[in-house]
Amino acid sequence: DFGRSSELAFVVEPSDDIAVQEQPLILYCQVEGIQPITITWRKNGVMIVDSENAFMLANGSLYVSRFQRVRGDGSSDEGEYDCMAQNHYGLVVSRKAKIQAATMSDFHIHPQNAVVEEGGVARFQCQIHGLPEPVILWHKNSMPVNTDNERYTLLPKGVLQITGLRAEDSGIFHCVATNIANVKFSREARLTVSGSHSTVYKDPMILVGPENLTLTVHQTAVLECIATGNPRPIVSWSRLDGRPIGVEGIQVLGTGNLMISDLTVQHSGIYVCAANKPGTRVRRTAQGSLVVQAPAEFVQHPQSISRPVGTTAIFTCVAQGEPPPQITWLRNGQILETSDHIKLKNNNSTLSIYGINQADEAIYQCLAENSAGSTQASARLTVLWADGLPSPPQGVRAETVSATTIQVSWEKPLQNTKEIIGYVLHIRKAADPVEMEYQEAVSKSTFQQLVTDLEPSTSYSFYIKAYTSRGASKASEVTVVSTLGEVPAMPSLFIKVINSTTVQATWEPSIKLGQHEGFKLYYRKVHLSQYTGPVLLASNVTAYNITHLDASVVYEVKLLAYNQHGDGNSTVRFVSLRETVERTVLNPPCDCMKDEQNNKTSTTGIIIGIHIGVTCIIFCILFLMFGYRGRLLMCKNVQEQLSTPQIPRSQRSATGLVLNGATRRDRDDRDLNGKQLDMNELERLFPASPSQEQQEKGIMSAHSLSAPHDKTQISTLSLDEFSIIEEQPDPLPKNSHGSSPAALAPNHGPANEG
């Protein structure tokens, strides 16, 4: 009984149609399923009662003997028809079929007289409304236009184009509109072809561009584009979004009209017609939009299912179309009402039924509908019920234990308790949807459960089911109870010393605090028992300055959050201002504006000072290395004491000497006081008599020390002939052995290297 044969499904559904006045109309409806099946019809949602004019045939189809758009009583046979089928398992409703009367209005656009020069383009248009869409044909001089002539183009919307006009094209034109309702003729228009073909240059110009069209898939679209110019322009088409138009189903009518057959949704877009002057980039453009709609169709149908009592049933129905279809659910032919245990999700694509029972057994239908059409699909829910299942648990009670705990207790079912293998407690916040429910399993010998980790001041609903190996009992009665309120948690407190008499207490807002109305702040000197406070602060305040404090003592600061249930635990901090006072004494307040100005200039000074310092160090090292080796002594009677050939006194220049970094004045003072130099020091400075070559190299200006490879050797002198004299500015003459230019360079500065 649970196979497809037990379901109720449509084999044939009524379809949209256009009926002819005073003619019979048949709407088809065929159903399969378990008999007996009852079929009824509705028009615009109202049941149709068999009458002489409309009655149901034996196969379930509806027969209308004489269709009338308007009857004598003001009623009409036009409208939306659907058929309903019902059997033992439920009821289904077909798609809605839109029935309209065939009509034809008068022409609201007639062809107009035209005078066009030879070689030009002529265009005539007729426009008329009708159901179904009238077919428009053209006549010239009361004869049908020869459509085999490639210069004549007939467009479906009642347009006649004639290109490359000739004298024989002149004549009288009119159009004929035909459909199942009527045949109508337009007014006549005369075409006159004047003169001969002109050779005057004319810029390309688009006479008529494409219109905006809205069509349905599989129809044919014709985008008109007619252009003139001399030379004759070339017409081309493109899409504004740059995508290729393609070639399949694409055809050019006449000299530039674009026809697209068997439309799909992908053909939607903006089409651009361009008239190009041959061999140049001169062009004119016009554009029109094409919207292709697709009626709703199912991607995924709902499937019939069987579920035990108390479980969850889920139906999925996915449809597509353009524009996207709206989905509606029916239960046994009636609009499905959502409730706590019936939910629609994912834009109505998913139907969930929680905690199903016998009353939920029905046929559920998914209707998908958009402006292009509608469709429906159905599925049946079978609720499984085994004999001998336990009755619902009795006496369910819930008692609040704390802010986060509730104890639930119950009693055994009254019937069929032997096969019970356990109980399931269903828990949900009273304000939450059914799908947020969760369960806790309990052994068969336990009749109470402590539910923990709940939220304070929150209402919860509870019910129990007894389970056997063959299924679950029906749900017990639902009980609702609230948890106790809870005081807020401890806030995080931080203390910052502002100055010698002020501290700032700050704390962080946190969801962990829970619901709180505000904060209470206390403070005191640690050696006192009495607090100052409480200072009441709003829940959005996160800082408070405590002023007029004594810098010589330690303070205790306490902060807590409170709500309607009482005060929470407090956070305590200790703070001393003594260190701040001591720092203030050791580091008096600065002139911040002056310091800021100094800081702006000090950076540059520091950089310059570093460069100068490094440079000085480098030069000092160089002078110490080379200056120590190049000290010169000029002594009295040095010419007579040297063993090498003598240089005339007039050619020698005395050179000053600085010993051990002392100044000349210090040295002169020591000579005047008769202070004797250490002989060992003199011997170290002036070794024994060198060779003649070394002596000759030694008679040079102190400026020869600048040559890095020169070594000056001086003969030892007796102390009574030793003296320190001032440096002479005159340069040394060139020695007899041709000293190097570096040795004979003019003096550019003092020789002493102190």
TrEMBL record:
* Alphabetical UniProt keywords: Disulfide bond, Glycoprotein, Immunoglobulin domain, Membrane, Repeat, Signal, Transmembrane, Transmembrane helix
Fibronectin type-III domain residues: 392-486, 487-583
The organism's place on the tree of life at top rank: Eukaryota
Q: Please note every region of biased composition (Polar residues).
A: 644-654
Bilayer topology term: Single-pass membrane protein
Residue intervals of the Ig-like domain? 8-100, 105-192, 204-287, 295-382
A single GO BP term for this record reads: cell-cell adhesion
Membrane-spanning regions, if any?
606-626
Is DNA-binding a UniProt keyword of this protein?
no
Where do the record's region annotations for Disordered lie? 644-754
- Pfam families given in the database record: fn3, I-set, Ig_3
Localization, UniProt: Membrane
Please indicate if the UniProt record lists Nuclease as a keyword. no
Give the UniProt entry's GO cellular component terms.
membrane
Renumbered to this chain, the Basic and acidic residues biased-composition regions fall at: 663-673
Of which family is this protein a member?
Answer: Belongs to the immunoglobulin superfamily. DCC family.
PANTHER family, per the entry: IMMUNOGLOBULIN SUPERFAMILY DCC SUBCLASS MEMBER 3, PROTEIN SIDEKICK
What name does this protein carry? Immunoglobulin superfamily DCC subclass member 3
Protein's organism? Irena cyanogastra
Gene transcribed to yield this protein: Igdcc3
